[in-house]
Here is the input.
Amino acid sequence: MARKIAVIGTGYVGLVSGVGLSDFGNHVTCCDILKEKIDLLNSGKIPIYETGLQEHFDKNVKSGRLFFTSDIEQAICDSEVIFIGVGTPPKENGEADLSQVEAVVKAIGKNLNGYKVIVTKSTVPIGTNRWVKEQIAKESGKDCFDVVSNPEFLREGKAIQDFFHPDRVVIGYESEKAKEIMSDIYRSLFLFETPFIFCSLETAELIKYSSNAFLATKIMFINQIANLCEAVGADVHQVAKAMGKDGRIGSKFLHPGPGYGGSCFPKDTKALVEIGKKYQVEMSLVKTVITANEAQKERMVQKLEKILGSLENKTIAVLGLAFKMETDDMRDSPAIVVIENLLKKKAKVKAHDPQAMENARKIFGSQIVYTANEYEAVKDADALVIMTEWNEYRSLDLKSVKEVMKGNIILDTRNLLDPLTVKNFGFIYEGVGR
Here is the structure.
């Protein structure tokens, strides 16, 4: 049966989840305290770039299953299931900031008017869902509700695909009634034999952090191997390919580059370290991963400086600003660190990205030049740095690039280009680990 659902928070997680849940046949109301965001959504536009999201958004709005409102209290009262999808950004010490979750919990407690399932979709520290249960009971004076932990595993750029074809669905629960309702909501995934992990609240919370920390560790492991490959003359791609053939290791996340970024890995690894501190468990491996990741970003500028010498008054073309392709998200993007360091060294930066230009302007303002395309960016540049693996950068017209560039240096931090081909056009090529 179709469930009446409220999704509170229309950021990346909340909006994708709301659209996906409505596509499953549920009646979904997405809520946000930012009226301008709700007005934008009600006008048929979405505030983020995500492949396929607009099409599913349009279909479900047209079907009458997907709604948007800033009246959170009414949405809570009208819904049987409430998904919490607000942000949990890191504090200065790396601990997750739960202030938005706290505000939602308070609103739910004040407007609890019957049995409801409260589902935490946001990434929260271990123990948060139990705290949510205590706070709602305290605020409402009632016990006619259940709390569920249902962490998201959405890859930016592939979120729609991941929502409809997940590797697994994790549901932390305590009551059979809540389990039955969650199973009903996700009944479409049961038909595709998606693996479901039913577990305790604490286990579900830790699964999310553990998964992201492990993937971040794989990324930094191959980056350090790539750095060693450069020193000894080995090819990291062949090393990674051979490693990936081992079924115990697998080939995913063994791609060298400038370090990880985005909305999940940086904040979740830092949060896991803080959780360890709280419970007096030393997370030394995760700490090392965090340190190594920051060093990898810095190393990209060091590589460029080694080739060019002084960067002062040099014009550097940076292709790619988002932390990965198929998204406009620049949160903790390696490109930010690279550009900041270039500016500190008094270089001039010209930049291009197919989707992230507006977000870049919010960070750098007029400190850098924004260009309409990649070829305008490289015009009169002393060096070209590829930071994001967009497909259009894979197929650069190197002849045209050579004609308009002032210099002949290409730093390919994503190893998109074939080194021999690039060198045949008269460039000095520098990749990562080869």
Q: What stands out?
A: The first strand starts at residue 4 and ends at 8.
